[in-house]
Design a protein that fits this description.
about 160 residues; alpha/beta; 2 domains; 5 helices; DUF707
């Protein structure tokens, strides 16, 4: 008997306080299919500029990078990548595509903390480029470099 009474009370509470109405966001101005996303999260254009979610405004980008350089990397090639990245100035945004899934090991390099990391195991640079270098994203940069991880940089100067 108490179980039946509990079901009836629970049903009545559910009718009066629907769960969906308390948690659902609905923004009619968002594009079709994205109405439930928070306001201003949907924009017509995007880029890869790093932005803070919280913290001090002094942590924001001082200037936006003019160039994008991507590396498809595995941990075994870390010395080549470190040497290559050091050749690029602050005008370059570094984007690392990790084909071996090892991203946290790169944190030992100071430049890696300002880089963008995308990790999908066992993929090629063109697979990454096709999926992550959308025209809206790369439009913000003057030049884009898709670099091979084993390319030597002894005589390379990124600013020339």
């Amino acid at each position: 008997m108490s179980a039946t009474a509990g079901l009836i009370v629970g049903y009545l509470i559910g009718i009066n306080f629907p769960y969906v109405a308390l948690t659902k966001i609905y923004v009619p101005t968002n594009p079709r299919g994205a109405e439930s996303l928070p306001p201003e999260i949907v924009v017509s254009e995007t880029d890869l500029y790093l932005r803070r979610l919280w913290g001090k405004p002094s942590e924001d980008l001082k200037k936006k990078p003019k160039y994008l350089v991507t590396f498809t990397v595995g941990w075994d090639q870390r010395h080549n990548i470190d040497a290559a990245v050091k050749k690029f100035s602050e005008d370059f945004q570094i984007l690392l595509f990790h084909y071996d899934g090892r991203t946290t090991e790169w944190d030992r390099y100071e430049w890696s903390k300002k880089s963008i990391h995308i990790s999908v195991k066992r993929q090629t640079k063109w697979w990454y480029a096709k999926r992550f270098l959308h025209p809206d994203i790369v439009a913000a940069y003057e030049y884009i470099f898709i670099w091979d991880e084993d390319l030597g940089v002894k005589h390379f100067n990124g600013d020339k």
